[in-house]
């Protein structure tokens, strides 16, 4: 049996990886090494490793890395701690391949440790662009360390090849998030309302806002503008999901808590809703607002409008249900006016989601089995794209 190490550091990432974890766990040809790190182990972010345990998946190791700071210096030091922890883990456990998803700084440290240990890396969601976030450079860096690539659209597959990766190792499989939307058993509205202590009525927004990490100290000002729009529109109800452990993420989370205390009659806030509650809430909300990738990738599958604010997600392939706007108050108000209009909602009711694949998790695991059986050469040749 081949040993596949899957690493997860955030609530959202685990939700995406869950169908792959399930397939590997039940495979007769693969042995799962599940490692949790980052926000999963932090009380501030809900100790979400417990959700993994409740799902019945054995955690092979918990590797601490967060130092409790949301500064650039703190996150850099956290990466150093992760490098030490994963260096030891890979030396002892020697997986046949590492599977990681995305573009966060936690995964950059994990990939670097695996590279030095000569462990081949399989990477999900490469080739994407998010021009407002440091994730952009991290994602492409992980691509260059990786040996197998699972992209979410054909546009991204071509971009990974453009980065010099051999086409025979780059696979367009669609997005795991869309597979989850199609396969997860969602809660009925009444059950969800009881579960989260919130009633869906009138205009209900799902708001997730993260710092734009390639801008300097803009989180407070930009998020305050969005809160002003919500405050002035008394008929708007809001479910807030809090920011990740990015630089200045605590600023946003403190503002969410303060706003929810004052407007508790129409707002609730969560460090983590978990996959089922989050996707169920997407189904029943009027619009997704903020700058999270879930508004770009998952929300279109519900026919729900997305108001994507600012530059954090700039450059991603988007469905027609996504409305991009600036950070200004008038920009957000106009985007909401359009997105909540009956005409726009009718227009996107059956919108095509460009991230939809066919049995994405099965495709990924089948390819992993095939490539591991053949043997994965660590040495790579730069693939020259002919122009």
TrEMBL record:
Q: Which gene encodes it?
A: neuC
Domain UDP-N-acetylglucosamine 2-epimerase per the UniProt entry, residue ranges: 27-368
Q: Which organism is it from?
A: Candidatus Acetatifactor stercoripullorum
Q: What is this protein called?
A: UDP-N-acetylglucosamine 2-epimerase (Hydrolyzing)
List the EC numbers from the record.
3.2.1.183
Q: Does the keyword ATP-binding apply?
A: no
Q: In the record, which residues are listed under signal peptide?
A: none
> What keywords does the record list, in alphabetical order?
Glycosidase, Hydrolase
Please name the PANTHER family in this protein's record.
UDP-N-ACETYLGLUCOSAMINE 2-EPIMERASE
The Gene Ontology biological process terms listed for this entry are: UDP-N-acetylglucosamine metabolic process
